[in-house]
Amino acid sequence: MIELTGSTLTLEQINKVCYEGATVRIAASSMEKVIASRAAVEKIVADKKTIYGINTGFGKFSDVMIEEDDVARLQLNLIRSHACGIGENFPEVVSRTMMLLRLNALIKGFSGVRPVLVETLVELLNKKIHAVVPQQGSLGASGDLAPLSHLALVLIGEGDVFDNGVVVPSKTVLDREGIEPIVLQAKEGLALINGTQAMTAMGVINYLEAEKLAYQSEWISAMTIEGLQGIIDAFHPAIHEARGYPQQMDVAKRMRDILQDSKLTTHQGEIRVQDAYSLRCIPQVHGASWQALDYVKEKLEIEANAATDNPLIFDNGETIISGGNFHGQPIAFAMDFMKIAVAELANISERRIERLVNPQLNDLPPFLSPEPGLQSGAMIMQYAAASLVSENKTLAHPASVDSIPSSANQEDHVSMGTIGSRHASMIIQNTRNVLAIECICSLQAAEYRGIDKMAPHTREKLQALREVVPSITLDRIFSTDIKQVAEWLKANN
Fold first, then answer.
1. What are phi and psi of 479, to 5 degrees?
2. Which pLDDT does position 474 carry in this prediction?
3. Quick one: which of 296, 290, 287, 288 has its CA closest to 333?
4. Residue that is last in its domain, among 156, 171, 195
5. Whether 357 and 233 share a structural domain
6. How far apart are CA 309 and CA 318, in angstroms?
7. Residue 140's domain spans which residues?
8. What would the 3-class secondary structure string for the chain be?
9. Residue 257's pLDDT is what?
10. Are 304 and 101 in contact (CB under 8 A)?
11. Do 435 and 323 fall into the same domain?
12. Is 335 within 8 Å of 424 (Cβ atoms)?
C-alpha cells in the first residue's frame, strides 16, 4: 500500500503501483486539503464571483460568463468536446500511471475538486480499471487536454477501459464493480484535464525502461569486450577520476566488476595497444547517457508531485491565480534529452556489433558464421541494427523546438512534450532491439573464445540467455532470436 500525499511520490513507488500492482490510499492530511479547497470553490459559486474555469468558458472563451445553473453542464461539455485523441492507444501501464499522477496532483489541495472525485480515482486504481487513451492529439500546453479528457471520461461513465486486455465501454465495468459515475461539478472537469500527466506518465515509464536498458548495455558490452579480447586498462579508476564525472566513474567501476576474473580480457600491449572508441570509451559515452538520465529522473519526480492545473486555489480561496503550470516545457526538454541519451546507447552498440561481425576488424569467423560463405551468420543482423540506429536519429530530433498556436492564438506557445515522450518510447524500443542484436553476437563471440574463460558474471548471463536463443550452428530466421532476446531484456535485469 502506497500512501499518497501529493508531494512525496517517487519513481520507485510509481513502479510498485504501475508495474507491481500495489494499491494506494490518500493521506489524511491531504484529504483535509482537498476538503478545504473544495469549500473555497463552493463559496465562489455561492458568492457569484467571476473566476476562470469555474464560471467562465475556457481558452479563448475565458471572457464568456456562465450562468450558475449551467456550471455543471459546462464541465461535462468540456470533457466531451476535448476528448478528441487520435491514433494508437497508450499502453495500459501508461494509462494507469496517468491516473496515479493526476490523483497525486489533485490531492495537493490547490484544485478544488470534491473528495468523492479523488476517492473514485483511488477505487479505479485499486480495482485496476484503466482508461483507453489515444496517444496523439496533445500539444503539451494547456496541458495534455485530449489524453486527460479520455481519462476523465471513465469517471463520468463514458469512454472505454481495458478489461483483461480487451477494450470495453467503461459503464459496463463500472456497473459490474459497483462504482457510481461522477456528476462533475464546478471546476472539476478543468481540474482533471489541465495538466501534464500524459507526457509525464509516458516519461516515467520511459525512464524506468531506459534505466534498465542502460544497465543492460553495460554487461552486454562487457561480453563484447570478452569476445574481442578487449583491453581492461581503459576502465582503470585513475583515468575516470582524472576527469571527474561521477557517472563515468560509476560505469567504469561496474565494467570492472562485471569483467572481474575474466580470462578473455587483455592489457594494453598484449594484443594491441588501444581498442577502438566503441570499446575504450564505454564509460565516457554510457556515463554521459547516465548524466542525461539522472537529469530526466529529477525532472520527472518534481513533475509527479506538481500542481499543474489552472487556476490554482490558495489561502482557503482568498487567493485564486490563473497561471501556466500546465505548460509542459520542463518535461518536453527532459524527453528530448532522454531521446538523445538512449539513442547514443544504440549508436555505440551498433558500432560494437560491426566490430564483432567484420572480419577486417577481428580474428573471429567472418560474420560469426558457422560456415562463412555458405552461411551468412550475423551479417544481416548488423544491417537491422544500422537501420534502427538510423531511425533513432530521425526520432531524436527535439520535439520541444516546435510550437503551433492554438485557441485563436490565446495559447500561442506550446511544448509538444507529449510528442517527445512518445518518440522517446519508440527510441527505447529500437535501442532494446539493437542491444538484443549485440547480445546475440557477443554471446557467439564469447562462446567462440571459450565459455570457461568468461567472467563469472558474464558466464551467468550467457547460460541464462542460451535458454532463450541457442548458439548459431546453422542459419535460421534471426528475427525470432532478436524478438526473444528483446523480450527477455524487457522482462529481466
1. -55, -40
2. 96
3. 296
4. 195
5. yes
6. 18
7. 2-195
8. CEEECCCCCCHHHHHHHHCCCCCEEECHHHHHHHHHHHHHHHHHHHHCCCCCCCCECCHHHHHCECCHHHHHHHHHHHHHHHCCCEEEECCHHHHHHHHHHHHHHHCCCCCCCCHHHHHHHHHHHHCCCEECCEEECCCCCCCCHHHHHHHHHHHCCCCEEEECCEEEEHHHHHHHHCCCCCCCCCCHHHHHHCCCHHHHHHHHHHHHHHHHHHHHHHHHHHHHHHHCCCEHHHHCHHHHHHHCCHHHHHHHHHHHHHCCCCCCCECCCCCCCCCCHHHHCHHHHHHHHHHHHHHHHHHHHHHHCCCCCCCEEEHHHCEEECCCCCCCHHHHHHHHHHHHHHHHHHHHHHHHHHHHHCCCCCCCCHHHCCCECCECCCHHHHHHHHHHHHHHHHHCCCHHHCCCCECCCCECCCCCHHHHHHHHHHHHHHHHHHHHHHHHHHHHHHHHHCHHHCCHHHHHHHHHHCCCCCCCCCCCCHHHHHHHHHHHHHHCC
9. 98
10. yes
11. yes
12. yes
Q: How far is CA 324 from CA 101, 305, 348, 411, 471, in A?
A: 18, 16, 40, 10, 56
Average pLDDT over residues 484-490: 98
Question: How many folded domains does the chain comprise?
Answer: 2
Q: Residue 86: what are its φ and ψ, rounded to 5°? A: -135, 155
Q: How many residues belong to the chain?
A: 493
Amino acid (one-letter) located at 67:
E
Boundary residue ending a domain (195, 224, 249): 195
Question: Which among 52, 215, 295, 448 is annotated as catalytic?
Answer: 52
Residue 259: alpha-carbon gap to chain centroid: 30
Pairing status of strand 24-26 against strand 2-4: parallel
CA atoms within 13 Å, Cβ hemisphere of 461: 29
CB 159 within 8 A of CB 153: yes
Position 268: which residue type? Answer: Q
* Residue 52 bears catalytic tag: yes
- Mean pLDDT for 442-467 is 98
Distance (Å, rounded) from C-alpha 30 to C-alpha 107? 6
Picking from 114, 86, 289, 89, the residue whose alpha carbon sits closest to that of residue 191 is 114
Q: Which amino acid type is present at position 92?
A: E
Mean pLDDT value across residues 78-100? 96
Q: 70 and 168: one domain?
A: yes
List the CATH number of the domain containing 384. Answer: 1.20.200.10
- pLDDT for 198-246, tens place per residue? 999 999 999 999 999 999 999 999 999 999 999 999 999 999 999 999 9
Does the pLDDT value for residue 178 go beyond 90? yes
Does residue 188 sit in the same domain as residue 215?
Answer: no
Domain match, 240 and 156 both: no
Q: Is 34:113 a contact under the CB 8 Å cutoff?
A: yes
